[in-house]
Design goal:
The structure is a single chain. The protein has about 90 residues and is an alpha+beta fold. The protein has 2 helices and 4 strands. It has helices at about 5-25, 30-45; strands at about 50, 50-60, 60-70, 70. α1 (about 5-25) crosses α2. The longest helix has 19 residues, at about 5-25. The chain is globular and about 45 Å long. The N and C termini lie far apart (about 35 Å).
């Protein structure tokens, strides 16, 4: 378990993602960034699980378990997305 206050944990996650992007650069598949982020988080002492199944209940009905992108020990969900071209719509 990671013993980092939540605000510091958030900073560490953001800084980890920035480090991954600086190191690998743009243009790779999401899976590459996901794997690299898991490594970077581990190097910083932050426990991370990838593709965690999450039970989804809709209006009281269990609709199944679905893979959730990264989820750390504090249950901070991370969703990685890659873009082929950065457009103004990407910021919406």
């Amino acid at each position: 378990m990671t013993d980092i206050p939540e605000n510091q944990l958030t900073d560490a996650i953001i800084n980890s993602a920035i480090e991954v992007h600086r190191t690998l650069g743009p243009g790779l598949k999401e899976e590459v960034y996901e794997a690299a982020l898991a490594v970077e988080l581990g190097m910083r002492g932050i426990a991370c699980r990838r593709q965690v199944p999450v039970k989804v209940v809709y209006k009281g009905v269990d609709i199944g378990d679905f893979d959730h992108p990264n989820q750390d020990s504090f249950s901070v969900p991370l969703c990685l997305e890659t873009l082929r071209v950065l457009t103004p719509q990407a910021y919406v």
